[in-house]
Amino acid sequence: MRWLVGWSSTAARALGDGTAGATGYEGETLRPVGSQLLWGDPDPLWAVGDWRPDEVRVVHADPQNRIAVLGICGASDEELRRGLFTARGGALRHLTAWPGSYTAVVQAGRRITVCGDLAGARPVFHAPWEGGTAYATAALPLADLTEANLDFGHLAALLAAPEVPAALRDTTPYEGVRRVAPGHALVLRAGAREIAGYEPVASLAVAAPPADPDRAVDAVRDALVEAVRVRLAAPRHVPGLDPGPVPGMGPAERRAARGMPVPGIGADLSGGPASGTLALLAAGLPGRPGTLLGHGTGAGERLLAVTFNDLAVSGREAEVERAGALAANPRLHHVVVTGAEDTLPYADLDGPLTDEPGPSLVTAARHRARLAAGSADHFTGHGARQVLDAHPARLADLLLDRQRRHLVRPVAALTRADGSVLVPARVYGAARKLSRTPYRTGLEALAERLMRRRFDEPGGPVGASLAALTWARPGPAARWLTGEALAEVSVLLQTGADRAAGGPGQRPGEFRARTVLARHAADLRVLEQAAEVRSQRLHAPFLDNQVVRACRDLPEALRVKPGARSAVLRRVLEGAGVTDLPPGWGTPSHASSAAAARTGLRLAADSLVDLFDTPLLADAGLVEARVVRKAVREAAAGEPLPLDGLADLVSLELWLGRLLARRGTCWTGTPARARAVPAGIAPQRSALRAGARPS
Hints:
This protein is of the alpha+beta class. The chain is built from 25 helices and 19 strands. Strand 9 (125-129) and strand 10 form a beta hairpin.
């Protein structure tokens, strides 16, 4: 893990001689383990972890005014200096408008500003400490610092309503540690905190002016190209020296066996449109896009393209074939990683402790097998579906903007998929109802559903679309929670409904799309930590601020068309000079992922039943062990249960076990037991009440 941490105290201390930190246990200085100090007292800031030298930049205007940027940022030092002067006046949005993926921290006197991103992939956390406020880009260090216990209300909401901000609020799994919402910044003034939004809020009373589709797609192309270019312009990194030959192994095999990525830059090449677009853009831009010549790959400066071919389940043959056709590009060096039963979901549940829980914990080993054959800097297409595709609730947005004619094509596609002549009336009726439903009413309806345990939803593409045409819906794991846990989340929703009389300030479709994006970005962050390969960086350009902004400006009429994502990305590639795409490029495929999850669950059913023999989730009062064991057996037998809900339960149980088995802390200068959740989980059914208090 890599993170930054600092604090803002109420009392101003004299600047130290290059050191910082409060006095801790037995007079030892309190500071993060394995940290480098970026600036000192009275409001110190550290970077912790294996940051590369080019990923940490600090620009000073004077001893009291400076800016730190951590991550991949395309701004020059002069642009950072100008941004610092502008931020002193209170303007923040420009700090998030440079290409790349980064966290910016500005110190102007005693005022500290920490900017989060738009998607939520680089979040900011804060907690009260020593009369001031501590902040970090990871929640666990703050939980260690404050010896925080688990927030059972947050864990219940994470299972019952993971995409409903009113249920999750700004809480984290650790009691007292808060999260800054995407699109907001944390502003600290001598210990006092404030959350400020930096994105303009559109009016709900007046429809936005119609956007030109061609100009909007051009903006997406420019943002994507710039996001890829800024990563290609960064210095190349060679992961650690090869310790030496191994009999019967070549250089590439030695690297894979030792968990070392290939030097240089590479990309996923799944055969889908997102990863293919990034691979072709990176390979086609001027410069040296690929691996380093002379480091054993035999690929020269070609981009390393990695395709995962799952031999345990079928259904991806067409995608793998398209990936092979794309890899015929002379600037690509194609590597196919095959997976058997040992790379299925649930097959290998051992892994490191992540900052937060996430459903990707059950597939981390599967991703690690692919990434181990990748490069030191590796592009992934994560986030493309969430920023480009139209959430079904956007049909209600079209009705609010009086653009009914644009409902014809998506409704016709659903009609063809279902084969029923009643589909148009059902979909239009649901969209019309949502467009006339206040946000508060939507939260109250979800609270009622949870209290009455009504989780049945129609199946098929039409059923999924109808179920999504709402302000809020239960999570897939909600059906297995205890009545007490559901009641606690229902109370949170009713409290949120009372506070949300004016609504979220967005249209229902736009609001739902942003919550889905935040959920995906948070899980991607968990995946990066769980499947981490030493010395490797994963890059998800679709989650960069500027790319997210460009995609949000796409007109609804373009977005809701069937196949819109592949059409937009095809035009992006055409604008970059790439026109020779294989037949069927952009065809969606989700069946193989579901088949892999079901097969992995069937093969790992016995171990999962053992995992829930005496689960920590039951000690926390969230589930009953026998109910989950029964669900695992039924799903393994082929019953039509929501597999993503079981993934949520298994992932949270794994995360709790790793957290409680952890030893040590993120800090020096604290007693040995000064860490998060020092007392563990006390078996009690009323445990939720401690974390259910409204913030």
